[in-house]
What does this fold into?
Amino acid sequence: MKKISRHIIFSFLLCIGYTAMSQMDHRAFDPGYRFVSSGNPVQDKNFYLLTLLQADSTLSSSLSTAIIPELGIKLPSCLQSNECYIAEMMWTNEKNEKVFRALDALYIKSKKLKALINEHMRPSGYFQLYEKFSDTALLHAGWRDASAGINQILAAYAFGNGLRYPKIDSSTYDVKSKYYKDLFQEIIHQGLALSVSAHQLFFQPSLDLALFLLEINDRDEAARLEPLSHTNAAAYNKVAKINWTDFPYSSILVLGEGPEFDNIPISPYGKLRCNMAAELYRKRQAPFIIVSGGYVHPFQTKFCEAVGMKDYLVNVCRIPSDRIIIDPHARHTTTNLRNTNRIIFRAGIPTDKRVLCVSSRSHIDYVFNERFSVRCLAEVAHVPYREIVRVNAFQFSYYPVGVSLQMNSADPLDP
It folds into this structure.
């Protein structure tokens, strides 16, 4: 609890300081913003700043020229030690400070870097937690998140360290086994991130290694069923045609509950919640049902909770398919709410109407325990609701918050 409290206080003070430096002409989040693609959606969701830097060869080259000589990375001396190699790939505070100085120097003279911030970072929504920061403070925050995300992946999927929920988020293989250690040596000696000078971009070696560790462990959940604008296209196309005054709520959110056994696409709890949501839909409480839940239980399941719930709603409850929106990424209650907010803001669903959420009684009790908001701050850096109200034992409602658009590279499976 003490660590969480210090983190919250630090974040609050940081926001005050950076807000004081904010500029009046900052561009706001744009739901119609068109994302730049690196060709790797896992990278784009976790490390969008790095994708943007990659996309501009002039910027990335300038930064790399300024930073690479300063980093002092000595990979060849670490080739026989996995631990040494990872330590060299990690982004320390000292290394980050060198990056900050290079970014600040480039910002002064580069119109392209200013354009990257105001034409991409700000309107994307991916850095919404820092929307009031000055440009340079926003760059610092974006880099700090990216470097911490790389460190998180390296520690978790090289050594099994730092996982918040190891039972569902860990590597596919035993990281302590001879097989996995030998595999890691093979990665090193095949030249993946062998030397910084072999890459144009200063962050490429550690980024490549982090992404490859996710790939060999089949941890691509963040990219599955993306883009959601395509997956949910039929429902999104209905949004502009809704007369919202006809409904007390903007949507009915069904919280996922994964089955505990293989080869079961939807749990009994999921069916109960879907039945409740279907009845509320038929009573015209909202024009859409949002089902939220990813590929979570059991470990490395092939089934997505949201897809299973949508199939049940369509085939058993007879709800029109184009009135069901899926969030196939959420792995916890915190991200059920956060991801739903993202869908609402990006799809153009009114944000001044409440969301009606349905679940089991014990689950609702959990949300209304004071520890839940503390957990939200610790895990997603904000509380993903405002004016939350319990409707009955199985339902609550809330207003969505825009800060949920912030991407969270500390959770690479659902950033």
Summary: The longest strand covers residues 249-255.
